[in-house]
Write a structure and sequence with these properties.
The chain is of the alpha+beta class. Among the domains are: 2-67 and 76-312, Beta-galactosidase, Chain A, domain 5 (Distorted Sandwich), CATH 2.70.98; 626-728, Sandwich (Immunoglobulin-like). It contains 12 helices and 39 strands. The strands form 8 sheets. Strands 1, 8, 9, 10, 11, 14, 15, 17, 18, 22 and 23 form an 11-stranded antiparallel sheet that branches. α6 packs parallel to α7. The chain starts with a strand and ends with a strand. Bound molecules: alpha-D-galactopyranose (GLA). Alpha-D-galactopyranose is lined by residues 327, 357-358, 370, 405, 473, 475, 520, 522-523, 539, 542.
């Protein structure tokens, strides 16, 4: 279907449209409607965003003006879908343009819209145009009915004679009219990712943003939840959950206006980024992905997790490899025999792969610490005389796959790369250089640098076609913010740098579509849904203390499926048993990063069994539905369960973190089971020689009983955990 409004002509002469032409555009999922309407003034307004309306015929009753004129001297105002700077709206715009003649105003009028089927849903494209300047904005929406997710982005283009300057370029704008709004944000730092906190949004603006450029989500994650009328809750209430697919500077603006309405503006952060857009060049904003749930964040998370696995995540429906990593165990200090030994240990544990971390490269300035070598991706011959091919062979012999760590967007000044191409690194030509982790960020706005970074992967793959996995790291924010390549056009740096990063990620995926890749950024500072088109999983945090991991995994699971979240068993917090550490990591994509020699025979046997159990439970944990049952933020315990798609298998994870003396222990009600199926309850992941103390162990209950009465799985012992397998009989 293609509709073109005749009233809005090719000649850009935009007139007032009459009632019959007040086109209504409906963007629907199974549960949600976003309704837009062309008003008599020819502009496009949001008339509704909420629970799906049953009767199409009633959409015309929705009102476009939210500030009806009280007298003739006051202009009628509505929720303009993509409000431009300089118009009669007194609040934050979506778009701000300074035209080539210096005029700072933009009024966008509806021109046409069309819709088409795309994978998983329907895409609606709406063209808007300024009446005085040849500036076009196209709004794109993809509605995924089954998952109740809407993905939206915009494109800005012009045909003025000279470049125009963009100083605001939102992905979209959403409006709400409720009694109250509560924002849950996910602030972070190294080893302290996704700290959830909630505050009420009152009059004025609250902005969540980052200016780090690269490793951009180190202090704030690119996602948020808004509780509508009440703080977001797990199992009830209306919530908006949104995330931006942008691995650079982002900003979420929440503005409550004079009458208590909220506008939400997800965007690239315009900080230091006045963007000079050339005629006919298209500025594409990042995708903003959101869901509205009537039943709290639990349902909202499942919407996003399902959507991600079905359509966005690289190989979202495929399998994942369990692995042994060596970073926590050896750091930079290893040689080939040691690694070959670790590969055998990986096999012994029942793992699929060995992942070699940092420290394997550079010769003139060997990578023996984080002070040198980044940029020189030739194998370090002193440590590894046989090169990567010998390691691939060792892995084959051990019977595991082999993966490798890279950090290709970075350079240590102590490197041959920097000696040869100092102008490839972002830094000021005329000031003292400051460093983060002794390194500089390569200038990805420069196409030559993009080729070089792509070449890091290509060279390794050409030499070692059997390389099975990459961990791609990014440990520094952009420091010394000046691009030698962009010269006097620095306003583009933060944005074009990110576009360059995506160009390379995309190229890697195009050429190696089946290569699993882990996204990492000094722990969990990269997990945006644009990058995840090119990555199968991400590293949630360098903090692998299982207590902290309970909170971190609870936080990330709000927006990501367990399949995308890597969790490793390590030696952080040895006061927690190996069982507790493994049980916590088993909630996500399981891996190990520990020397097996430090484990006792019982502990090793436990780990072997836990790996086998995890593999058996893949249909539930990786491909099933997740239910967060008991929050570590609200109690001293935590519980989560997963159910396989056919509901024949489920697993319940229960953790006693710091139980209080004689506190009331409440049975945990499982969710998502088939009420009419009978399930056998079996505690698994038991240490050798111990037996389950669960009263219900070995017994059979209906799904109905397990969901209404629940299981008594909590205990008074600190750092105690239980994994319970439920199998249909
Ligand atoms: C980052 C990562 C770690 C590890 C080190 C290596 O900190 O998050 O997992 O790879 O780099 O230097």
């Amino acid at each position: 279907m293609k509709h073109i409004l005749a009233a809005v002509g090719v000649a850009l002469a935009v007139q007032t449209v009459n009632a019959a032409e007040q086109r209504i555009i409906r963007i629907s999922t199974d549960n949600t409607d976003l309704v837009l309407q062309v008003a008599p003034n020819g502009r496009l307004y949001q008339t509704y965003l909420g629970e799906k309306l049953l009767h199409e015929s009633e959409l015309k009753n929705l009102k476009w003006q939210v500030h009806p004129a009280s007298d003739a001297s006051v202009v009628e105002r509505g929720w303009e879908v993509y409000s431009g700077s300089g118009n009669e709206d007194f609040f934050e715009p979506a778009l701000a343009v300074t035209h080539s003649d210096g005029n700072p105003s933009t009024y966008l009028y509806y021109v046409s819209s069309s819709s088409k089927e795309v994978e998983g849903g329907v895409q609606t494209d709406i063209l808007l145009r300024d009446d005085k300047y040849p500036v076009d904005v196209t709004l794109h929406y993809v509605a995924f009915p089954k998952e109740n997710v809407i993905k939206t982005w915009s494109e800005i283009k012009h045909q003025e004679k000279k470049p125009i300057t963009l100083s605001r370029y939102a992905s979209t704008m959403l409006y709400f009219s409720r009694q109250s709004y509560y924002l849950t944000e996910f602030s972070s730092d190294w080893a302290k990712e996704v700290q959830m906190s909630t505050q009420q949004l009152l009059a004025g603006k609250k902005i969540l943003d980052t200016k780090l450029g690269s490793r951009a989500a180190m202090h704030m994650q690119p996602f948020f939840t808004v509780g509508l009328d009440q703080p977001a809750a797990e199992m009830q209430g209306d919530v908006l959950m949104g995330t931006l697919g942008w691995v650079g500077n982002f900003s979420f603006t929440f503005e409550v206006d004079n009458v208590g309405n909220l506008r939400v503006i997800p965007a690239i952060n315009p900080y230091a980024s006045d963007y000079l857009l050339k005629p006919n060049e298209t500025f594409t904003t990042p995708e903003f992905i959101f869901t509205l749930s009537k039943n709290g964040t639990g349902e909202g998370s499942r919407n996003l997790q399902n959507w991600a696995r079905n359509y966005q995540l690289k190989d979202g429906k495929g399998s994942r490899m369990t692995l042994l990593n060596n970073w926590e165990n050896t750091a930079f200090d290893f040689d080939e025999p040691m690694l070959a030994g670790l590969m055998k240990e990986a096999k012994d544990l029942g793992l699929d792969m060995f992942l070699l971390d940092d420290g394997w490269f550079a010769n003139k300035y060997p990578r023996n610490s984080d002070t040198a070598g980044l940029g020189d991706w030739d194998v370090n011959r002193a440590k590894l005389p046989g090169g990567v091919p010998a390691l691939v062979e060792d892995a084959k012999e051990a019977g595991v796959k082999f993966g490798i760590w890279i950090e290709p967007e970075m350079v240590n000044p102590k490197s041959e790369l920097f000696e040869k191409h100092p102008d490839w690194a972002i830094h000021y030509p005329n000031r003292d250089v400051y460093y983060y982790r002794n390194q500089l960020v390569l200038d990805m706005s420069n196409p030559q640098v993009q080729d070089y970074v792509y070449g890091v992967v290509e060279k390794l793959m050409k030499e070692n076609p059997d390389l099975a996995y990459f961990k791609w790291d990014c440990n520094s924010p952009i420091t010394n913010i000046y691009s030698p390549y962009l010269k006097n056009n620095q306003g583009r740096l933060y944005i074009d740098h990110v576009r360059g990063v995506y160009n390379v990620m995309k190229r890697v995926k195009e050429n190696y579509p089946d290569l699993p890749m882990m996204l990492c950024s000094g722990g969990g500072a990269r997990c945006d849904y644009e990058s995840l088109k090119y990555f199968t999983e991400f590293w949630c945090s360098d903090n692998t203390d299982p207590v902290e991991r309970c909170y971190i995994q609870w936080g990330f699971s709000q927006f990501f499926p367990a399949k995308a979240m890597c969790a490793h068993v390590t030696s952080w917090n040895k006061s927690a048993s190996i069982k507790f550490r493994t049980d916590v990591a088993s909630m996500c994509k399981l891996g190990f990063d520990i020397g097996l020699k430090e484990l006792s025979a019982d502990e090793l046997a436990f780990c072997q069994e836990a790996v086998a159990n995890w593999k058996r439970l893949v249909p539930a944990i990786m491909d099933g539905q997740q239910y967060r049952l008991v929050s570590p933020y609200e109690t001293n315990h935590m519980a989560v369960n997963y159910v396989s798609p056919d509901k024949s298998k489920a697993v319940l994870f229960a953790y006693d973190i710091y139980p209080r003396y004689q506190a009331k222990l409440i049975p945990v009600k499982v969710q998502g089971l088939d009420p009419n199926k009978m399930y056998k309850v079996e505690e698994i992941n038991l240490m050798p020689g111990t037996e389950s103390t669960l009263e219900t162990n070995g017994k059979v209950f209906s799904g109905d009983y397990l969901m209404k009465v629940g299981l008594e799985v909590f205990d008074f012992k600190p750092l105690h955990s239980r994994v319970i397998e439920l199998t249909e009989q």
